Each structure stands twice: as C-alpha cells, then as structure tokens.
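thought: user wants a sequence for this fold. calling inverse folding tool.
action: design(structure=
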C-alpha cells in the first residue's frame, strides 16, 4: 500500500463493505469465494467483481484463481478496517503521518478529541509467514494465526493501559479495534534520543511509575530508554509499549522487574553518570528489603 491516508480516502463505503465481507468470510475460508463476498456484503456480483478488481490494484486484497475465484486480505486492509471503525465510532476524525515503524507495530498520527497515536500491531506476521505457506497441509490450524496474535496483543496492551491510567504516566488509552489501539499522542521523543534538563528528577519519576505499576500488579517487561517518551514541556516521562506486560502472578515477574529497573539504571549511568545501586532501586519500587526480591 502506498500512502495510508490517501488509500483510505480512495475507498468508498461499498469498498469497506467488501473488506468487511472478506474479513467475515476468512473465518471459514482461506480464500473467500466471490459469490460469498457478494452474499455477505449484500452487493450484486457484477459490482463486487468490479470493485474487487480495484481493491486488487490497490494491493489490499490478494486473489487465487486456481480452484475458484477467491480473495484474501493482509494487514494493510485490516488497518483500514480498524481505522474506518474508529471513524464510525467517532474516536478518529482524521489520519496523519506514520510516526513509527517497528518490528512489532506501525504507529500513525491521527486526530480525534485531541491528537492521537494509533498503534497497529504486527505480532505474528514474521513468525507465521512459513505457517501460511504450509497451511494447505495443516488444515487444523486457525485460518489467521497472524491476525489473531496481533489482535490478542493489542487487546492485552489496551487492558493493561486502562488498568494503569491515570495512576501511572502512560498515554491515555482511547479505543480498540481488531489489532489496532488508539491512544493519546505524546508530543516528545524517546528518552534515549533527547537530553533531559534534570535527569535525576526524570529517573525519580520513572522509578515512581514503576513502583505504582508494581503496586497495581503489573510489570512492563520491556522497559528501556526506547519505550519511555519524554513529553515536551514539563509533563515528565511517559511509559509506552505494554503488550508484553505480565502480572505479579507470572512466574518470572520479579526477574522481569529486575531487568526493567536495571535497563533504566544502566541508561542513566551511561548517559548522565547518575549512580544508583540496583538493590536500593528495587527496594524503592517494591517496598521490600532487597534480599527478599
Ligand atoms: N502514544 C504515542 N505518542 C507518540 N508516539 C508514539 C506513541 N506510541 C508509540 N509512539 C511511537 O511509535 C514508536 C513505536 O511504538 P512502540 O514502542 O509502542 O511499538 P514497538 O512495537 O515497540 O515498535 P518498535 O519495535 O519500533 O519498538 C515509539 O517509539 C514512538 O516513537
Ligand atoms: Mg517499543
């Protein structure tokens, strides 16, 4: 897909009905037969054929013609369906630039009731590619393991953020659709890329957030200078990227907490020469004596 916002604007209401029909049909079919797309969307076959041709040219659907005329969609089309759902539910009024492309997600700016960031999860894409190729022989596999993995990750991230906000400084979670999460946009940059004016205060605020997170029964489990955004102005740091968070019942919760805190301390030592022993930071965060942790 070329440009996300441009592609979105090119699509009509009928195109979205067709994508919705393919999405529904893909629960039962690897390739959704064109007759079923027509039935599910309530649009006449001739029109469906013509519209699908255009969606194919926009690279939003793929087609197989070996056994019968069938269609399938990939993450780009799901992104557009999730976006159109946010628009329908009045969470999003307009879509902006892509602001982050990672291994596990792509993030877009958007505007709703204030500036938003929409995170489209991509978990499972790489790891299930080979499964998709093998799928003909493995008929008992779920049809869309990659989408399923991404949707689960998005839901978990949304639920964790709702549990933490506003006690912990995380972006305000706004809405969830499929594998996409809309949240408050933080206008700032990753902690690792900026120089903060008062690093000691910044470290104290981060550790205090880790303490509150632990108090609410959660460990981030991927905390580092890459997943902390420093907001412009003096709003302080915000912790992002929560899909891998675990709760305290997790068998490795304390190890993961120790790793999170070490990552933060190592960064503040390397960049600002602020020294804080791991034991005292952990004591601060958990309220326990170090040897118990
Ligand atoms: N709420 C937000 N406000 C502003 N920017 C954001 C927000 N959420 C994410 N971003 C941007 O998108 C990037 C990726 O987001 P995130 O860390 O949640 O995903 P990821 O899966 O870890 O991607 P990566 O593999 O690049 O780390 C962030 O580093 C940040 O630049
Ligand atoms: Mg990240």
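)
observation: tool returned 293 residues.
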């Amino acid at each position: 897909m070329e440009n996300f916002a441009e592609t979105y604007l090119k699509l009509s209401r009928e195109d979205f009905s067709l994508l919705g029909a393919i999405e529904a049909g893909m629960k039962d079919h690897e390739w959704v037969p064109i007759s079923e797309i027509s039935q599910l969307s309530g649009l006449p076959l001739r029109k469906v054929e013509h519209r699908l041709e255009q969606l194919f040219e926009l690279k939003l659907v793929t087609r197989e013609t070996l056994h019968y005329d069938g269609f399938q969609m990939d993450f780009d089309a799901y992104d557009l369906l999730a976006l159109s759902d946010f628009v329908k539910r009045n969470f999003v009024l307009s879509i902006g630039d892509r602001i982050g492309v990672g291994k596990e997600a792509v993030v877009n700016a958007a505007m709703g009731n204030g500036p938003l960031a929409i995170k489209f999860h991509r978990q499972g894409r790489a790891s299930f590619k080979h499964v998709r190729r093998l799928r003909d022989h493995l008929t008992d596999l779920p049809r869309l393991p990659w989408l399923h993995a991404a949707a689960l990750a998005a839901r978990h991230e949304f639920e964790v953020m709702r549990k933490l906000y506003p006690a912990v400084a995380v972006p305000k979670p706004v809405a969830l659709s499929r594998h996409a999460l809309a949240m408050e946009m933080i206008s700032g940059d990753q902690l690792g890329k900026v120089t903060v004016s008062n690093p000691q205060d910044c470290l104290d605020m981060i550790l205090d957030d880790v303490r509150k997170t632990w108090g609410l029964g959660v460990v981030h489990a991927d905390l580092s200078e890459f997943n902390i955004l420093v907001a412009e102005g003096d709003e302080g740091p915000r912790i992002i990227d929560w899909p891998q968070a675990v709760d305290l019942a997790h068998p490795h919760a304390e190890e993961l907490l120790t790793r999170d805190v070490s990552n933060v301390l190592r960064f503040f030592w390397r960049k600002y020469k602020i020294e804080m022993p791991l034991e005292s930071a952990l004591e601060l965060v958990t309220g326990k004596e170090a040897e118990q942790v």
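thought: summarizing for user.
answer: Here is the designed sequence. The radius of gyration is 22 Å.
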